[in-house]
């Protein structure tokens, strides 16, 4: 049952990884389109590919910390009084500092507020912003595919090695190193986003780390097959009672 569970997790994760990988190209095209979009000559009256900067007043801001499934959100108000609700993927650096009646500048593109800038010049993408999505998709694909493949191998292997403790142990080593591969990709993505590194930094950093984890995986799996990880320590002997 444990192997079947790992196989199911692997299949689902691989599906998510493949879907994420397919979205990298589209996310790159959208980000390039946004970066190359010209400024609007006048206030756009309908969704447009040009970029317009509009001043808003913050009516309310809720970080929604601790609320599962609810993203940080804010209600912005146009000078005309029309409200505009926006959500964010995270609270830093602008969202966490928003306060009622504060003035902010929203960047409108294709009829959506994609970026918010505060009075100090700090910028933050909203949930509709195109910047950063290629890296998110690439990091997600690396994490899901690397973990999914290792989990699949580690889940299928024991099914063909019933009764062979060494192979079962080797499969366990493969599975848990797969967890390390996925976690390393997520941490790499977090570092890239926190430091605003370019997209290529994700595979450039994760690649060598993944190679080290794969080397460790191979060594532990081979050690398990040789019996180096077997618990062969003899049980402690009980002292014999003295003869009366």
How large is the count of helical segments? 4
Low-confidence stretches: none
Strand proportion, as a percent range, falls in 15-25%
Largest beta-sheet characterization: 6 strands, antiparallel
Q: Distance N terminus to C terminus?
A: 54 Å
Give the strand tally: 6
What would you say this structure looks like, in words?
There is one protein chain. The chain is α+β, with helices and mostly antiparallel strands and 244 residues long. It has helices at residues 2-35, 133-156, 165-195, 201-226; strands at residues 51-62, 73-77, 83-87, 103-109, 112-117, 123-125. A hairpin with a 2-residue loop joins strand 4 (103-109) and strand 5.
């Amino acid at each position: 049952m444990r192997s079947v569970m790992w196989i199911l997790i692997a299949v689902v994760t691989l599906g998510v990884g493949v879907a994420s990988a397919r979205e990298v190209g589209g996310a790159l095209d959208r980000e390039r389109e946004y970066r190359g979009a010209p400024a609007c000559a006048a206030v756009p009256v309908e969704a447009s590919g040009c970029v317009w900067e509009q001043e808003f007043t913050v009516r309310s801001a809720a970080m929604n910390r601790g609320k599962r499934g609810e993203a940080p959100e804010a209600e912005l108000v146009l000078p005309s009084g029309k409200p505009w609700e926006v959500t964010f993927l995270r609270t830093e650096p602008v969202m966490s500092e928003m306060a009622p009646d504060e003035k902010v500048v929203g960047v409108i593109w294709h009829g959506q507020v994609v970026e918010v800038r505060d009075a100090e010049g700090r910028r933050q993408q909203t949930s509709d912003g195109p910047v950063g999505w290629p890296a998110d998709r690439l990091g997600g694909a690396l994490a899901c595919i690397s973990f999914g493949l290792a989990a699949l191998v580690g889940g299928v292997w024991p099914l063909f090695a019933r009764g062979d403790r060494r192979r079962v142990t080797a499969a366990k080593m493969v599975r848990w190193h797969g967890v390390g591969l996925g976690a390393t990709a997520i941490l790499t993505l977090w570092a890239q986003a926190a430091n605003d590194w370019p997209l290529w930094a994700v595979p450039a950093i994760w690649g060598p780390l993944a190679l080290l984890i794969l080397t460790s995986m191979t060594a532990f799996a081979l050690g398990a097959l040789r019996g180096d990880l077997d618990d062969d320590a003899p049980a402690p002997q009980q002292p014999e009672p003295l003869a009366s």
